[in-house]
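Cross-check.
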Amino acid sequence: MNYPKIYWNLCRLNLQNNKGYDLFSLALAKQWLESGKISVSPNISDELLHLFHDQKESLQVRALAGLCLRCSISHPVLQACQSVANLFSASRNFTHHDLLPFVLNDDGKDLILTDEQGKQFNLSKNDDLTLRSFYLFTIIILHSYQSQRTTKFSLKNWAFLKTKQNKEIQKFLSEFGFKNLTDWALLNRANKTQVEQLSSSDQILLEVFHQVYRRDRRLQPNQRTKCPTPSLIQLEEMGEKLADKGIETKDTKQILFSLNRLAKQLRQYDIWQSRESLEHYDSNSGDYQLRRDLPHDSLDEEHVEQDEMTQLLHEYLAIALNNSITSVVKNRQQELAKSKRYREFADKFLAGLRLYYVEAQSLKEIAPQLEMGNWDKARRILNPGNLLSQVRSQTIEQLLEKLLKLAQSKGVIDKSPTSDYLSSLSVQLETFVDTEILTQAAAEIRSGKNRSFDSPYAQKLKQYLAHN
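Predicted model, tokenized:
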């Protein structure tokens, strides 16, 4: 039977090699797979995981299943190191070679099992177990994945994520100035350039945060400690200052939520904007092109399918979201202009969106101002829910098209990808877009009085409205 090579080809550290690793074929893993213990199917990883953790199976079978899994895990571990290096090392003196020793430490020579506590044991031919003093990162990943089976991550994506979160890698990056800052440290250190990227309401929120939090932080005797979560007293004072600036006072939980959201926004700016981009704008083609100095073997199917916040996907999302908002809004204006019933409101459509999203007015309040008659008519004309739905659909379509072109250009897939591949990628993109855009944006529309539009979708839409 034809088993995927990743289950018996191990990415093994070799710093003498220009790539930093070798693909090492494990005959033992291949022979065991070909013995027919498991079937060739899309669920092969799940079958191997079941065998590896099944206490009713023999120790040899469990360890051999684990050996195949270790081979498969080594690939996303390698690709995560390449991804981190591509993202952070553009202007620094290090490459993915420097990261590999922290995580690519499995040579595939030993059969290994783990207990419920995560301890690792070598298994001999006589089924004797010996406690290991040196732990393999691949086994650590397998144990952590089993203990977190409520996660929706595939094992492949879990390995990618755990590699990027590896403490040794993060410690190494911190030596180059890339520190894993808390939300409060990010907000506290926000600079003028970052502030200019924010909406006016967020700029006020950050200004108030600085007035209270920075002041108290400077009074602390030891400022080298982690920035703590704002206290209840601090949040209450921020609420009072917001009220003084004409922003309706929110309760402390809402203020804390808004600050967390703002920190996430700054974190994305800090990661994706202040580092070297994986793409640059080509004025000749009018499109975004991959930088030529990047290693071409690092952007493969693994990166295309990652539903985590990888840089390339976020950049594509920002571009697709902008394009989709422009397209959907213009199409809606054209629809109104062609409608006999609503033609007179085509020129008022943008004004209505400004009142709804910028002024946070309700449809009931908007209707008389734009002579739309009543709430129901204003809803049919503006229809913010339908607008969001169309933007979502177009954004997913554009992302799918962009990623497929990238995968084809890299030789990852054929020009005619299989329906299973398209279906899998579409589902992942829908989840990604919903998490980044739809969920918060839809919640804003459903909320009643005192709503605020702070989602990435609302921010992009308000930017469009400000220039049109």
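The first strand starts at residue 9 and ends at 13. Residues 270-309 have pLDDT under 50 and may be disordered. Passed to J.P. for a second look.
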